[in-house]
Amino acid sequence: MGKTLQIAMGSIAVGVVVLCMKLVAWWLTGSVALLSDALESTVNVATAIAALIAIRVAARPADAGHPYGHHKAEFFSAVLEGVMIIVAALLIMREAWLGFLEPPVLDAPVMGIAINAAAALLNAYWAHILVNRGTQLGSPALIADGKHLWTDVVTSAAVLSGVILAVATGWTLLDPLLAGLVGLNILWTGWKLTAASLSGLMDEAVPDDTLEDIRRIISDRASGAIEAHDLRTRHAGQVTFIDFHLVVDGQTTVDEAHRICDKIEQSLNARLPKAQITIHVEPEHKAKHSGVLVLSP
Fold first, then answer.
1. Residue 71 sits in which domain range?
2. Residue 294 backbone dihedrals phi, psi, to 5 degrees
3. Sequence-ordered list of residues with C-beta below 8 angstroms from that of 157, at least 6 positions apart, any chain
4. Domain stop point among 184, 201, 218
5. Do residues 65 and 143 touch, judged by C-beta distance below 8 A?
6. Do 32 and 153 fall into the same domain?
């Protein structure tokens, strides 16, 4: 089993444990804010399952119907997570409004707060793992899942602060009021995640720093060529697609042109291990005198 799949399965297990802890905290206290926190955790479990499915689909090899592979499946998962975060935020805001109309009486607050705090710490630990490992493995689904969990950690921290204040001051309206503010923050987070994932589905180019690395590698490793132009990039899940035209002297043999392409591909793959590279070799009269100029050896 791949590392990405193992981490995705771990997310489901952690999500179920955290959800159970938060439900117990809500049951003990009757707090609307803690109920809102638990509602978001139900989304965590659902999105972790969606991420696992997307990662399994993305890992499938290319076939006749999908010659470029199934890598974009992870972006669909990330979009789904963003949408579900938005839904969770709306549910939280609804509960906050109902609590505002009829402020709850908090029971057993100390025990409920302690359990919720432990759940938040577990979430924070796992969110850190997801974002770090997702970045290392180039997995948008894991990164999205980690960012989603971080919003849950922020939510829990804010909720706990509100419940403690409500208990300390006796002002029970703080409980639903804070739940509503947290819902607004989560709504904004869900929108940003959805927008970023949709950019991936629209074949957005790689980040500027990665593009600069690609241009530098082509310039350094294309010794024997004249220039590279019409460089295009896009990323889909863990795979980066790179294609460009490489201009060589008209007297260059096919073997020599192939050797130059191999050098470029090896260096690009060292920087982007799962890159899929397409190079179109052209004779000198096709030069555009723009794009990437090749450095002399």
1. 3-201
2. -85, 130
3. 120
4. 201
5. no
6. yes
Q: How far is CA 240 from CA 83, 151, 228, in A?
A: 25, 28, 18
pLDDT, tens digit, 9 for 90 and up, residues 73-129: 666 666 777 777 777 778 777 777 877 777 666 666 788 888 988 998 998 999 899
CATH, residue 50: 1.20.1510.10
Q: Would you state the structure tokens that stand for residue 296, as one six-digit string?
A: 């002399």
pLDDT tens, residue by residue, 61-85: 767 776 666 666 666 666 777 777 7
- pTM for the whole structure: 0.55
Sequence-ordered list of residues with C-beta below 8 angstroms from that of 5, at least 6 positions apart, any chain: 52, 55, 56, 59
If one counts the domains in the chain, the total is 2
Length of the chain: 297
Q: Assess whether 24 and 163 both reside in one domain.
A: yes
Amino acid sitting at position 193: L
**Is residue 134 located within the same domain as residue 259?**
no
| 94 Cβ contact list (under 8 Å, min separation 6) | none
